[in-house]
Amino acid sequence: MAAPRASPRRLESLKNLSWLTARQLDKLSTELTVSTIEKRAIIFDEKHSPDSAYILLAGVARITCRNRKGRRTLVIMVAPGMVPGFPPAVPGFSYDFRCEAVTPCRIGTIELESLIEISLGIASADFKRMAASYQGRWDLVQLRGANFMSCTLEERLALILLELSETFGASDGKEIRLTLPVRHRDLAELIGASRPRITQHLILFERKHLISRDGRQLVVNRDRLESLLAQTHISEN
């Protein structure tokens, strides 16, 4: 159901938008598509376009996701202001993030490209490249730490190998060749296990054809590793 236009004064009262100038706030208020969301309804989820930005104008919302056991769990309570975007996908994890209305809410929606140009005066693509370079992938570290608690050593090793193949991988047919030397000690530190146990599991992974070696380089079979994680996830449920 359509709702009245968001006033510049209302936008100025939102903490994470109050730094915008009066001209920017006025421009933003004309660009927003405002709607009313009923209590407990889904505001947006992973199926919605990642190129849209959402501003909570009134009400309380929350962001939830599914944990490794498939149960939906609360991640963030959201106050009026810019609604945080969902983190980029992490290999081996399926979170099914969604933003839900805790109370009746008023939501303003705008194309992310337009929001960035209004707020920063630069192209959206340039900003995304700069932000990705500056922030890195700390989200991977946070999500990894949160999920490792419920993962076996086998699963943790599979997840780390998928993560490394995403960052340091070169396609080699159906497999991914890691372009950096992978030391067992480094894997042990990333996973939180002893070096001998990592060596044992890497041997098992080779026997199962999850990985292979070409001289000193490690070759990862992403499809097999993802199937291993998917099967484990299904068996837990």
Note down, in words, how this protein is organized.
This protein has helices at 8-12, 22-31, 112-120, 124-135, 138-148, 153-168, 184-191, 195-207, 222-236, and strands at 33-37, 42-45, 52-58, 61-66, 72-78, 81-82, 98-101, 105-111, 169-172, 175-178, 211-214, 217-220. The chain is α+β, with helices and mostly antiparallel strands and 237 residues long. The chain has 2 domains: 8-135, Jelly Rolls (Sandwich), CATH 2.60.120.10; 151-236, Winged helix-like DNA-binding domain superfamily/Winged helix DNA-binding domain (Arc Repressor Mutant, subunit A, Orthogonal Bundle), CATH 1.10.10. The strands form 3 sheets. A 4-stranded antiparallel sheet has the order 1-8-3-6. Strands 2-7-4-5 form a 4-stranded antiparallel sheet, with no helix packed on it. Strands 9-10-12-11 form a 4-stranded antiparallel sheet. A hairpin with a 2-residue loop joins strand 11 (211-214) and strand 12. Helix 2 (22-31) packs antiparallel against helix 3 (112-120), helix 6 packs antiparallel against helix 9 and helix 7 (184-191) packs across helix 8. The chain is elongated and about 65 Å long. The two termini are 38 Å apart. The mean pLDDT is 83.
